Batch of 3 targets.
Target 1
Amino acid sequence: MTSPGTAPQPAPEPDRPDRSNRSTEPPEPAGGEPACLLALVCAECGALAEQAPPTRCRRCGAPVGRD
Ligand SMILES: [Zn+2]
């Protein structure tokens, strides 16, 4: 039951880049503290620690939050 040619075709969307989404930085959570989140990231494996630093990575055991 197909009748090609009778259905109106939707207008093609213009291919324009979204300039508002070109930021290379990840979106920061509203009301959060990105600085603290960075301190929670394990330098060895990149996992996020569950506890506030200084602590140890629950994945690889490396110290987190220490310089
Ligand atoms: Zn780790």
Target 2
Amino acid sequence: MMDDAAAVEKMTADAKLKTSVFKCPNCGGEAEFDAKTQKLHCLYCGGYYEIQNNEKVTENELSELLDKATVWNEAEVYECKSCGAKEILDKQEVATVCPFCGTNNVVRTEDLPGIKPQGVVTFKIEKSNASDIAKAWAKKDWFAPNDFKRSATTENIHGVYNPVFTFDAETKSDYDGRLGKYYTVRRGKHTYTEVRYFHISGKDYPLNFDDFIVQASTSVPQKHISKISPFPTNGAPVFKSEYLRGFSANAYNKDGKVCWDECKELMRIEIEKRILSKYNYDVKSYVNISTKFNHPLYKYILVPLYIGNYRYKEKIFNFFINGSNGKISGSRPKSFWKILFATILGLIVAGLIIYLMFLGDFVD
Ligand SMILES: [Zn+2]
Ligand SMILES: [Zn+2]
């Protein structure tokens, strides 16, 4: 058992890693956002305080993105000199440990924090839970080395708000293309596979997108955000700095315009997938699609992530956990021997299939 003085000392040490400070109205101690109760929780007297906020975030016209968005004045940008990650903190705060690489080589910069978030998806998963999720995930990878699976240690787990733009759009697409279907012909003793091509086309193919998420910071790759989605961005509360207490926010380095261009590309991929799913085909020769994006709307919103890493044989492997639903993505060490074994096994199976196909031909 820790005595009280030791407990307070430990709490102070923990609090030093924290970012935004909110003073408890009861005792003046530091309070932070509590995922379990969705309230502010004082680290010293244990009191809970409701965050006064009944408003839900709403969409904005995309045309207003550049000129009318509010600038985030009450915040400052810090940069990690070790890994280059940028964090946004409240003005009264000081530098902290970098959530991406764990070093405290973090300095304040003159960079502007950009536009103010309009909404925030709050943390629902507690930090202690995040570590359990990461340990369980380490065990699930068949290719991971056995000693890693047995005793994976998780380090530097930080709750970080990650910036995303969400977009809505009503799309209409005209398309034309050529697809092919396999068929077999018999000539003499042998059967051959050939392709029969056909033409496809359509006008005003409709597809509506709602809250399509585009990652606005390159510190966390889009593929991880897509894997751990969804985030409940629809109906999320409007931004209040109280939600950041005890967490930090990653700065965006892709602005709304860059994200919208990226979004259109991602939406085009989805539109092509939907169009092609209407047809029965084996090969795609080409498809041309021209899309109109009508009534585009956007939200700039923070979504909750736990970022941490595994350390294995002096190497660092990052993982990212959705702070709202607990889904995880990232990298894990791979065992060279297991990969070699699987490759050899794959080759044997492929060889066997080819052998059996030829055998079938001869019997026939
Ligand atoms: Zn208190
Ligand atoms: Zn760093």
Target 3
Amino acid sequence: MRPIMPAALALILVALAAGADAASCRGRLDALGTARVLALDPQGVRVGRKQFPHTLDLGPREVVLTFDDGPVAGSTALVLDALAAECVQATFFLIGRNAEANPGLARRIAVEGHTVAHHSMTHPPTLAHMPYARAVADIERGIAAVERAVYGQSGGAPRVPFFRFPGFGQSPALLGYLEAKGFAVFGADLWASDWIPMTPPQELSLALARLAAAGRGIVLLHDSKLQTARMLPAFLRELARRGFRVVHVVPKGAAH
Ligand SMILES: [Zn+2]
């Protein structure tokens, strides 16, 4: 019998664990839950009204939860715990070097059924101000590092062709590069400004006020921030209480 390669084994384990996670949420009527899965054809997609003219096709009170800059020790695990407690799936835009440093956490994000997306290798302050070739290299190294950490191998077409620019530092040339590679580029519709230090209750009220004003949309948070991890359980409870529904975005054709 042909031995199973480690990479293939890792994929099988990811699939099995995702199934187990879904099973643990069956019948959990008390949880916020994931209301629906949006299978996105990534080609040419640029979404998020903070950066682009369009956003995802969301109904009233539908939100897409996104987390940037992980995985990091401490806060990312707390974010995953909070999402699991409410049976909610989110999208994580991982930094390549963080995935390399914390491969167990990177795998846990995938195992628990979340979408693993890309956010460059080193999170330069703005890719748009770097020489084009260096910027592309940073993007590609990031994608490869995340794929290696999560799936045990890289190369070929990325499993999730979703990218978010660090600091939204995009340029027409880099947008064109990502479009040619078949990537969807994610901006955001609202955020909690969690790069500014504040207490979890302050961040909670800011996030809820902005969500109430927007009514729907792609919400940007950072799993790298402890203040966000600490306000998340209350935020998810409030989403449920206020009748918001969580939409999980996956690339079209992905097994879900
Ligand atoms: Zn970032």
